[in-house]
């Protein structure tokens, strides 16, 4: 049986940061819907063109486009032992689709760590976030600075500030999260899959708590 983990939580809480660490340590694939959309935008694909407007406004990309993109990704061979889903599902329709696409291959979502932090922390984190152009590695000017300003420690590529990390867009993204994604908290709690993880701690402390939660499950 493979392992499928959904990382749930508001924008900026640290899902991408933690997903990359846990994927490295566990050998699970890291599937970030946001990274996939940004890659499509960078490569000027049709999906990228359709998604870009929604992303720049801090709105969600329509469910059908998002679900098709993830379905294609999750059936690739590097997901054989399972995956950490980061940023997907983000609506109840997507959550139902995630279940169906995994059930079709004899799998299911095993556990949903829900990472939490107060809104003011989210804004502070997103406004200082720097992202690597090549592979989406994540830094922060104060909390996780790169060794050399503007350069990714891991692959040497340029770091940039995402357009949707502007304060006004961030505020909208938090509202969109509350309206459209937060119903998933009850959805997964009712299925007995939700485990809360305190996100308002240092990166290593969040990783420790997350690994504890995952170790208890397996
Ligand atoms: P998400 O994927 O949930 O949107 P990220 O992992 O991209 O969040 O983190 C948002 C920003 O906060 C990044 O700049 C990252 O370096 C920083 N960050 C992540 N986790 C922590 C933490 N525990 N403490 C301080 N800063 C953090
Ligand atoms: P993220 O990198 O997770 O912060 O996502 C960046 C943006 O991509 C979001 O604000 C949305 O516009 C879009 N996006 C990412 N994942 C999804 C999803 N599961 N459903 C709809 N839109 C998404």
Automatic annotation (TrEMBL):
Question: Which residues hold AMP?
Answer: 33, 38, 59-61, 87-90, 94, 162, 173
- Reaction catalyzed: AMP + ATP = 2 ADP
Q: Which GO terms of type biological process are on file?
A: AMP salvage
Supply the PROSITE patterns for this chain. Answer: ADENYLATE_KINASE
Q: Output the superkingdom of the source species.
A: Bacteria
Region annotation (NMP) ranges: 32-61
| Pfam families with a match to the protein in the record | ADK (PF00406), ADK_lid (PF05191)
Q: What does this protein do?
A: Catalyzes the reversible transfer of the terminal phosphate group between ATP and AMP. Plays an important role in cellular energy homeostasis and in adenine nucleotide metabolism.
For this chain, the family text in UniProt reads: Belongs to the adenylate kinase family.
Q: What is known of its domains?
A: Consists of three domains, a large central CORE domain and two small peripheral domains, NMPbind and LID, which undergo movements during catalysis. The LID domain closes over the site of phosphoryl transfer upon ATP binding. Assembling and dissambling the active center during each catalytic cycle provides an effective means to prevent ATP hydrolysis.
Q: What is this protein called?
A: Adenylate kinase
Q: Which organism is it from?
A: Candidatus Desulfolinea nitratireducens
Query: Per UniProt, what is the name of the gene that codes for the protein in this document?
Result: adk
């Amino acid at each position: 049986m493979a392992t499928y983990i959904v990382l749930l939580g508001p924008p900026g809480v640290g899902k991408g940061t933690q997903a990359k660490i846990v994927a490295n340590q566990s050998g699970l694939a890291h599937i970030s819907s946001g990274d996939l959309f940004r890659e499509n935008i960078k490569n000027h694909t049709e999906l990228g063109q359709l998604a870009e407007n929604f992303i720049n406004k801090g709105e969600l990309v329509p469910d059908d486009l998002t679900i098709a993109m993830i379905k294609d990704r999750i059936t690739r061979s590097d997901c054989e032992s399972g995956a950490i889903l980061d940023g997907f599902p983000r609506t109840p329709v997507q959550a139902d689709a995630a279940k169906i696409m995994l059930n079709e291959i004899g799998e299911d979502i095993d556990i949903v760590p829900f990472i939490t932090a107060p809104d003011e922390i989210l804004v502070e984190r997103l406004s200082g976030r720097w992202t690597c152009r090549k592979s989406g590695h994540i830094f922060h000017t104060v909390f996780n600075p790169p060794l050399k300003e503007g350069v990714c420690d891991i692959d040497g590529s340029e770091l940039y500030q995402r357009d949707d990390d502007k304060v006004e867009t961030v505020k909208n993204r938090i509202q969109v999260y509350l309206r459209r994604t937060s119903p998933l908290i009850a959805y997964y709690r009712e299925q007995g899959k939700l485990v809360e993880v305190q996100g308002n701690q240092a990166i290593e402390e969040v990783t420790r708590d997350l690994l504890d939660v995952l170790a208890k499950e397996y």
